[in-house]
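User: Can you predict the 3D structure for this chain?
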Amino acid sequence: MSSSNSRFAGLGKEVGRAVGALAIALIVAFIIILLTSDDPFKALDTLLTGPLSSKRTMGLWIDDVAKLTLTGLAFALVFQARQFSLGVQGQVYVGGLFATLIAMSPIGETWAAIPVSMLVAMIAGAAYGFIPGYAKARFGANEIVSSLMLNYIAIKIVNYLVRAHLAPPGTGQLMTEKFPATSIFPAIIPNTRFDLGIVIALVCVGLVWFALYRTSWGLKLRLVGHNTSFAEYAGIRSRFIMVSAMTAAGAVGGLLGAVFVEGRAFGRLTIDFDGNLAFEGILIAIVARNRPLAIPFAALFYGYLRQGAQLMGIRTDVPTEMITVVQAVVILLFASSFTLPGRNAIAAIGRRFKPRAAREGAAS
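Assistant: Here is the predicted structure, written as structure tokens:
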């Protein structure tokens, strides 16, 4: 009973933190809008209701949720092992490139196009995630520096290949030709971006949760993350676990690359196709505390805020960049030891007015 109570108490605390952070973020957003807009109430209304204004905008929101969920999972895997690899963006580009090569090959016109391209993208992403992990385990290289440099390498190489080799020759386009219909995700809701990507993301949530909490590998990974010295004393090969965590995260990142290029938003490979969204998974992982089952909910909230901000930038006079201040506030609140103001005072008042019998029972 006590463990159940503590579990619910912990859940209540996390929900309270989330609600408090949301309230403070909205207050900050309103202040920013008030200072920058001639019609602040219209701008705030667009921010809060824009993503639900039509099937098209809802599709944009869910498309972002799917991608944010996958990038959040990738970052959460390495953060669980207490590694700070930031290479998901590069893995997304590598995965997107290899998915494109499959889509533009003869396989791309067959029923096997989507499963094969996703598999190849995952393998490519895993290989790219393995590199900084091995460099740290073998040579002691800093994973933050190596993964960031690998991001730049992947982005520049993919952009060069698109411009110089994959785009239709002589057109000056910065994208490939449209993929065959068999290589593009089917829409769940017609004429929207609500496509197979969200199903893939939710399946990945279940798989990552199972791997972390129902397998010996996941237990070892979490032990290494909590206390590396204790894990090594218990006979766990911490270096192997670190490398495997980065490799698994790379596979998820590569899969996200396939979701980008084969989703209905693109259906082709373009330069700079991720729009920096792949890097925003850091925020999702922080808000969700690296818990796979919490990541989709964090992605729902952040994706809604992201789409609302973009629509506000299009439909009103508030620049979209201003909403990054709100995003920074959310990160600071969740990354710090933020608690609701006055929580201790409220708890003290509650204890004071608790019935005497209950107080005596608690004391005994």
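Confidence is low (pLDDT under 50) at residues 338-343. The radius of gyration is 23 Å.
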